[in-house]
Amino acid sequence: MHIYMLRSHSFCCCLASPLSSFLRALHWQLNNHRQAPTLSISAIHHQFLPSLSKSPQSKMGSETETVTVEGIPFPAEITFTAGNPALSLVANGITDIEIHFLQIKYNAIGIYLHNSDVLLDHLHGWKGKSADELLGDDAFFQALVAAPVEKLFRVVVIKEIKGSQYGVQLESSVRDRLVAADKYDEEEEAAVEKITDFFQAKYFKPGYVITFHFPATSAAGAAEISFATEGKDEAKMKVENENVARMIQKWYLGGDPAVSPTTVRSLADRFAALLSAAA
């Protein structure tokens, strides 16, 4: 038996020969899903939008503004914590794999930051750089992760998978980064295992939402992960370990090794423009 290993970003899958049989089955499955009388991803996703509070005072636009990513609306602004400034949508993208020229999209991603003078001052060293220059500069993305501003990553499911699959991908990425930085000790191991357990029994259906929130200072906790599903209360967990929280940020903001190249490209494009216009 021949095994074909296909990789794209952090996703991989093994296919047994003959490949054509797999593709025929996948083609049937996709057609079958299209014919099923189900709500669209956009329609399902709208059910979760009322829980978001958006401030009309933000520089990014009004309450009604949204950016559509693969048919999924992302609010231009989100206020995660009452009393805090609105977070602006600064980048978006997807996670996907390509199998024999067939693209399979898993998640749509929105990156929200407190777009303030603090953020732009923190990144001032890259003022005047082009998007391509930022894209190739790992130090820029490291600085973005370290920026002392509130951040929120909103991940919306496009293709259903088991939560355990997502949890294992996240665990592997975070652990590998911690090991490479020589910061993987017992406390980090325990924190990573808690995240894996959080996703273990969940099932990701189209339109379901995973949120990663990172406060501006560690005094408010290192991070919070939430999972919103149709008809159920939002599940939440705290990530108290700062090293683990930082590596989760790097999974989405980490430049070339990040999980979503389209999101990283969007970040580079946006910050090249923001920094160019900054005083």
From TrEMBL:
InterPro entries: Chalcone_isomerase, Chalcone_isomerase_3-sand, Chalcone_isomerase_bundle_sf, Chalcone_isomerase_sf, CHI3-like
Superkingdom to which the source organism belongs: Eukaryota
GO molecular function annotation: intramolecular lyase activity
Record-annotated Chalcone isomerase domain positions: 69-274
Residue stretches spanning the membrane: none
Family: Belongs to the chalcone isomerase family.
The protein's name in its UniProt record: Chalcone-flavonone isomerase family protein
